[in-house]
Structure formats: structure tokens, C-alpha cells
Amino acid sequence: MFEDLRSFLTHLESQRQLLRVKDDVSVKFEIAAGMRKTSDIEGPALLFENVKGYPGWRVLGGLFATRKLVALGLGVPQEQMLAEAERLAQDIMSNPPLSVRANVRVSRWFARRMEEEALYYQGGLKLHLTEDFRESAQAFMEKRPPEFKGR
Fold first, then answer.
1. Prior bond of 44 cis (ω within 30°)
2. Which one of 45, 52, 145, 146 is most buried, counting C-beta atoms within 10 A?
3. pLDDT digits (tens, 9 = 90+) for 69-89
């Protein structure tokens, strides 16, 4: 595996699987056409270094457009690619990143809070079924103070 994207790109260059495009390219059609072409011919990945209208920007494309590039990214031969992907998925599921763990906690808290509020409001909806509610309405009609019994 690779420490970061830069180290992966360095590895791709050493394997002749990264092509740096130094010509000016347009974001309208040219970049997409280049990525399509590279996936049709089984590589390499493309790094567009001069994007028209976006000075200093670079666009990386087709990074995983072929099985060979995916295998290089996983650091295994193509024949072991699926097994390695399954192993990584198991690792991720058994020990989710902190952001996933935090999102799960927040989602669970929010669900509990919504359930509590729903129960609170539902409780208020049943007040009209109590004897005290009927007594208050009757007392109001008769212009007298209500006699509540707590039922």
C-alpha cells in the first residue's frame, strides 16, 4: 500500500503507468476525451498539468481505469486483486475510521432524540381522552371552576 497519493503517482511513473500531459487542455471535452481514450487502450493514468482557465490547477484522471491500475493501487498482482479488496473491506468494517464512527454515534443520538420527542408530543395528543380534559371543557361551558381528579 502507499502512504499517500504522491507516493502512488511516483510508483505509477516508475511503472510507466502515469502520463504527464504538459499541453494546455480544456475542461470542456479535452480532459474527458483523454480519460476515455486511456481507458479504451488499457492505461496509463493521466495527469493534466496545464488546464486552460485554471492556472496552477492539475487534473488527475483514469487513476483506476484499468484492472492493472487497480492492482498497482492495491499493491498486488491482478490475480490477487479481488481477494485483497475483500480483505481491505473486512478491515474497514471491523475497525471503521473515526469519521464513520462519529457519524454513527451522531445518527444514533439523533434517532433516540427524535423518538423521545415523538413520544412527548404523542403523549400530549392523548390528553383529550382523559376525564380531567372533559371536566375542564364542561366546567368552562358551565362557567365554574374545574374539579380535577388526575384521570
1. yes
2. 45
3. 888 988 899 899 889 988 888
Can you list the pairs that 57-61 forms with residues at least 24 positions away whose Cβ atoms lie under 8 Å?
59/25, 59/27, 59/31, 60/9, 61/31, 61/34, 61/35
CB proximity list for 133: less than 8 A, separation 6 or greater: 127
Q: Is 143 left (phi over 0), alpha (psi -120 to 50) or beta?
A: left
What is the average per-residue pLDDT within 128-140? 84
Q: What is the DSSP string of the chain?
A: --SSHHHHHHHHHHTT-EEEEEEEE-TTTHHHHHHHHHHHTT--EEEEEEETT-TT--EEE-TTSSHHHHHHHHTS-GGGHHHHHHHHHHHHHHS--HHHHHHHHHHHHHHHHHHHHHHHHHHHHGGGGSHHHHHHHHHHHTTS-------
Report yes or no: 19 and 41 within 8 Å, Cβ to Cβ.
Answer: no
Residue ranges of the domains in the chain? 5-94, 98-141
Amino acid (one-letter) located at 13: E
